[in-house]
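Progress note, sequence design subtask.
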């Protein structure tokens, strides 16, 4: 039987790499994206026969189109997509440049729009699909120095709810996972002081692991989650209670 195809953006490291590995272990053929050839090669190496790395810049429409052409040349269209690619360009608002704002929103929010749009028609045809967006706890909490990032993640929550209402009748679910502080390159960039302040706010007393986010993606990708849509699911050790 042909394997179901999944697409995970930003799968070269961190949360995306864990998601790609988890979906592969669940029997999906996984396309994982990276921004460089070297990153794509690493993904191919890690996924072996269960998937392939692909160079794809989510902020560039031509790159997304090229990526989808490559995916469709191989076989079935992805019916599970995980919009995980994300960047931070932190700065206080008084100092934030238009470029810092634009880059973050164009990657985190507009990137999800481009990838979802490219995948949606095939999901509608199949009358089955799973769209999983990776947001952030800061969309609810706010975070000084991250007006760009927080806006992009709050936008993704609205996108998730609206799209869920549009496509529910086609058997497609759309959900968002909102991680708290997860150990990856993104949080390694924080100062010791910032990390200590964050840990003090987490009832479970530790940062999360990428595989703990991947486990929720695995659940949402399967038939057992068929009745869950339009939701934000928090994975944050209790630092924010919905
Ligand atoms: N870590 C946390 O605590 C945390 C908390 C809440 C939410 N999140 C969210 O979880 C997601 C993954 O975070 P992470 O911590 O795993 O980040 P990470 O370790 O910094 O990895 C980011 C990933 O995104 C890819 N990427 C960056 N810009 C891209 C672009 N323009 N087009 C396509 N791919 C791009 C990177 O690819 P390259 O390697 O090729 O550059 C990399 O695979 C992000 O959306 C982030 O906002 C993370």
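Output:
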């Amino acid at each position: 039987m042909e394997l179901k195809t999944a697409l995970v953006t930003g799968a070269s490291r961190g949360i995306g790499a864990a998601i790609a590995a988890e979906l592969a272990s669940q029997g999906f053929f996984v396309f994982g994206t990276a921004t460089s050839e070297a990153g794509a090669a690493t993904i191919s190496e890690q996924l072996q026969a269960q998937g392939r790395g692909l160079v794809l810049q989510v902020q560039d429409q031509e790159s997304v189109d090229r990526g989808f052409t490559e995916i469709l040349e191989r076989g079935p269209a992805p019916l599970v997509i995980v919009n995980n690619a994300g960047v931070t360009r932190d700065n206080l608002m008084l100092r934030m440049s238009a470029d810092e704002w634009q880059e973050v929103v164009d990657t985190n929010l507009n990137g999800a729009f481009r990838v979802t749009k490219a995948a949606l028609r095939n999901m509608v045809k199949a009358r089955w699909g799973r769209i999983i967006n990776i947001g952030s706890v800061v969309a609810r909490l706010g975070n000084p120095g991250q007006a760009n990032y927080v806006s992009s993640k709050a936008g993704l929550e609205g996108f998730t709810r609206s799209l869920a209402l549009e496509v529910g009748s086609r058997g497609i679910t759309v959900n968002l996972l909102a991680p708290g502080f997860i150990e990856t390159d993104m949080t390694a960039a924080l100062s010791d002081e910032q990390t200590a302040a964050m840990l003090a706010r987490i009832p479970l007393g530790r940062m999360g692991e990428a595989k703990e986010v991947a486990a929720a993606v695995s659940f949402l990708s399967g038939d057992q989650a068929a009745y869950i849509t339009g939701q934000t699911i928090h994975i944050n050790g209790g630092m924010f209670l919905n």
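The pocket of NAP is lined by residues 9-16, 33-36, 39, 56-59, 84-87, 107, 134, 136, 179, 181-182, 184-187 (CB under 6 Å). Work on this subtask will continue into the next period as scheduled.
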